[in-house]
Design goal:
Elements (H helix, E strand, L loop, with lengths): L3 H11 L17 E5 L2 E4 L4 E4 L14 H13 L9 H13 L5 E5 L2 H16 L3 E5 L33 H4 L2 E4 L4 H11 L3 E7 L14 H12 L2 E6 L10 H6 L5 E4 L10 E5 L1 H4 L18 H14 L3 H24 L4 E5 L2 E5 L16 H13 L2 E2 L8 E2 L6 H16 L6
Parallel strand pairs: 3-13, 5-6, 5-7, 7-8, 8-9
Antiparallel strand pairs: 1-2, 2-3, 4-10, 9-10, 11-12, 12-14
The structure holds pyridoxal-5'-phosphate.
The site of pyridoxal-5'-phosphate has 15 residues, from helix 4.
Length: 428
């Protein structure tokens, strides 16, 4: 069998950067050969307890047997037809529509980026306007309208900060970036430029910079402001959807957007995403309306069967309860340890997600995170990885608890964190 070093070296020769997503980066070069439950194993046989969870899909844990069985059964009976609809696509649309408040109608794509792309195209068509508002720190996928101002250098805050070469400046110029949780900034921008703004798109909890919670009034203010100015409100629930609640964060906060996007935990890691929304807007998509929407693999039975099986596992609430309990224990435990070890930390938590920041609060927007001690953040994560507890060694990244994590896993995580944090040099 090939070793880690061998596979990583071979990957570097035939795959640009050696990985199939820029976000998989170079922070921890490894080749994974097996994944099961809360664990994965690399090509050298090192076993990791996984809190990264592939950036969030794995709410049930890796290789969940009932989800896998549902996929096998569906693919023994079906594959793609490329005409009409399948029985399970109808069933999934009905299921999502049942749970998600904004989901009068549902369309399926293969990735979150495709879903946010289609949402913005629809918003432009509906309003006849070209610009959008997004928030600093949010990630909505890889396309030109949104790939900017995620983890920005301090001097880039308040300015366009595209993440890639080759993006069309004209598209970038149509995206206005505002601070999260700042109702006044949104109100002022809509007051001045409302007739240009097709949509406000918001990661309801900006999990791409960890776990910053919306102020209680923020999302409801977005709702009333967009309505007053004729813009669409889009909730990007690619991470929050199904992970925090079957109805998404919109069910928790009680604010219903015009459109929303879902992916990740919806199918426990199988490739599928959804764009959902109000019927009057969704009906504008082709073939009924003039907004083009297509994809050879949309509604593929692999993703659809996985989504139906995952949602059915979540329905009795026990998975969420288990994950939320362990994530809360991780949060309380890390807070306690940081105090005992004299390391200034803020541990943020919502539902099954917890994030240790190496800074004191408050924590309301991206600018607050400039106080995070990146060197310590990465140092801590690297030491945890060395001890076989995989917390992606990149600053600000969140940890996810799945149904497969056990109390023993959590206890071992905290014991290891104690050893690591107490060996960190205290600040003089
Ligand atoms: C909030 C959010 N929206 C959209 C996306 C894009 O999804 P995908 O990577 O499936 O294209 C991501 C991916 O991490 C995300 O976190």
């Amino acid at each position: 069998m090939s070793s880690n070093a061998d596979l990583v070296e071979r990957a570097g020769r035939v795959i640009p950067g050696g990985v199939n997503s820029a976000n998989r980066g170079l922070s921890w070069p490894m080749a994974v050969v097996e994944a099961s439950g809360a664990y994965f194993t690399d090509a050298d046989g090192k076993r990791y307890l996984d809190y990264h969870a592939a950036f969030g899909p794995l709410i049930l844990g890796h290789n969940h047997p009932r989800v896998n069985r549902a996929v096998r059964e569906a693919t023994e009976r079906l594959d793609i037809i490329g005409a009409g609809i399948t029985d399970i696509e109808v069933q999934l649309a009905e299921t999502i529509s049942h749970y998600v408040p904004s989901a009068e109608q549902v369309l399926l794509t293969n990735s979150g980026s495709e879903a946010t792309y289609a949402a913005l195209r629809l918003a432009r068509a509906v309003t006849g306007r070209g610009s959008i508002i997004k928030f600093q720190g949010a990630y909505h996928g890889w396309h030109d309208a949104v790939l900017m101002n995620v983890i920005s250098a301090p001097d880039k805050i308040g300015h366009p900060d595209p993440l890639s070469l080759g993006m069309l400046p004209e598209v970038v110029a149509h995206t206005i970036v505002l601070p999260f949780n700042d109702v006044e900034a949104v109100a002022e921008t809509l007051q001045q430029r409302g007739d240009e703004i097709a949509a406000v798109v918001v990661e309801v909890i900006p999990h791409n910079i960890g776990c910053i919670l919306p102020r209680p009034e923020f999302l409801s203010a977005l709702r009333s402001l967009t309505r007053a100015h004729g813009s669409l409100l889009i909730f990007d629930e690619v991470i929050t959807g199904f992970r925090h609640n079957l109805g998404g964060y919109q069910r928790i906060c009680g604010v219903t957007p015009d459109l929303s996007t879902f992916a990740k935990a919806m199918a426990n890691g199988y490739p599928i995403a959804a764009l959902v929304g109000r019927r009057e807007f969704m009906a504008r998509f082709a073939p009924g309306g003039g907004v083009f929407f297509a994809g050879t693999y949309n509604g593929h039975p692999v993703g659809v069967a996985a989504a139906l099986a995952t949602i059915s596992e979540l329905e009795d609430g026990s998975v969420h309860k288990h994950c939320f309990t362990l994530a809360r224990q991780a949060t309380d435990g890390l807070r306690q340890i940081s105090r005992e070890c004299g390391i200034p930390m803020t541990v943020a938590c919502f539902g099954s997600v917890f994030v240790p920041y190496f800074m004191e609060g408050p924590l309301e927007n991206y600018t607050d995170l400039l106080r995070n001690d990146t060197a310590r953040d990465i140092w801590f994560r690297r030491r945890m990885c060395e001890h076989g507890i995989f917390m992606l060694p990149t600053a600000l990244k969140r940890n996810h608890v799945s149904a497969a994590h056990t109390q023993a896993d959590l206890d071992r995580t905290l014991e290891t964190a104690r050893r690591v944090l107490c060996s960190m040099e205290p600040i003089a």
